[in-house]
Design goal:
Two copies of one chain form a homodimer. By secondary structure, chain A is mostly helical. In chain A, 39% of the residues lie in helices and 5% in strands. Chains A and B meet through helix 1, helix 4 and helix 5 of A and helix 1, helix 4 and helix 5 of B. The structure holds a DNA duplex (30 and 30 nucleotides).
Chain lengths: 161, 161
DNA sequence: GAAATTCGTACCGAAACAGTCCTGTTTTAG
DNA sequence: CTAAAACAGGACTGTTTCGGTACGAATTTC
């Protein structure tokens, strides 16, 4: 469904919250409380984001997390890539002869194109843009798809295209 | 991972194959053979595409499938939407007070934006463009992500962004 | 040195996905 | 008019991934 995982969903909420409070040093319980997200997940995601270099972590008693860079310099593409795994694009079978019953499989090369288009779209949106509500305003297009999710789903993904 | 399902993957291969042979009327076993895809899946997907109005089906002995419209008039966005389910975009919890601990959750409205960007990218690519190899050529950026998939994976998704 | 906090990893249940099969219904061919 | 070919629509199952949890280790502050 061209959907992102809940992890990424949560991650963006957390990053947005941090971007909105750049002066504060927030730890996992604080972030969980302020975003109304389950603490264990928050903790897990923060670890991931820190390892990927998007967050700077400080251990110890007065530890916590902060953005590693300014919110303007972090793109949605980066965040999603960090939370979803390594940067892999089109993966055909590398074994020749399975896919290429035609001398040159035309489908494959064009996946690159789609990826590039989608990626460009995501790279064009910075984290800082998520902190202030969009001028256009949200037109209530929300047609919830596959039955409401459990408990909290603060930001909740794009499920279809 | 912003990944599409295998169904959609297969579906695009099938549609591309049909777009490349607009004069022919192909049935499920033929398509399965020519695309090297498993027949049961092919059959399943063709049914879905026909129901969604992207394919025109003809029953009976000399039956088969053909594109319902010209390949230029079918966008990637349409295909994906048809195969992945209904058009749902950003789904926040509709219950006020959970998500909106801030008077107006800033994250939510901006998901619309991301969706719009991605959708626009996909709407800009027509099925007809998938039939001929891209001029620029595929630069081999293929870093296969989570271990090769089983058996056949002809076109195989964009896994990360 | 003790307390608080991040870090790493391993684990489990539930849901979604990939794939298969079976039983109809429609159409052409002989 | 009968039979075969092909689509139509579910129901079913195994596997993977995701969401969520738990615990011990490392690190910093007081």
């Amino acid at each position: 469904m061209i959907r992102i995982t809940k992890q990424t969903d949560y991650g963006i909420v957390l990053l947005t919250h941090l971007a909105a409070n750049p002066e504060r040093q927030l730890n996992a319980p604080e972030l969980a409380a302020e975003t109304r997200l389950p603490l264990p997940m928050v903790s897990k995601i923060l670890k991931l984001l820190a390892r990927e270099g998007l967050l700077a972590s400080h251990r110890g008693v007065k530890g916590g997390y902060g953005l590693a860079r300014h919110a303007e310099e972090i793109s949605m593409a980066e965040i999603i890539a960090a939370l979803e795994g390594p940067i892999a694009i089109t993966e055909c079978v590398s074994v020749e002869g399975d896919c290429s019953h035609e001398p040159l499989c035309p489908v494959r090369s064009n996946w690159q194109r789609i990826n590039t288009a989608v990626r460009a779209a995501l790279e064009g949106i910075a984290l800082s843009e998520m902190t202030h509500a969009k001028p256009g305003g949200p037109q209530g297009l929300v047609t919830l798809g596959s039955g409401g999710r459990a408990a909290f789903t603060p930001a909740a993904a794009f499920q279809e295209v």
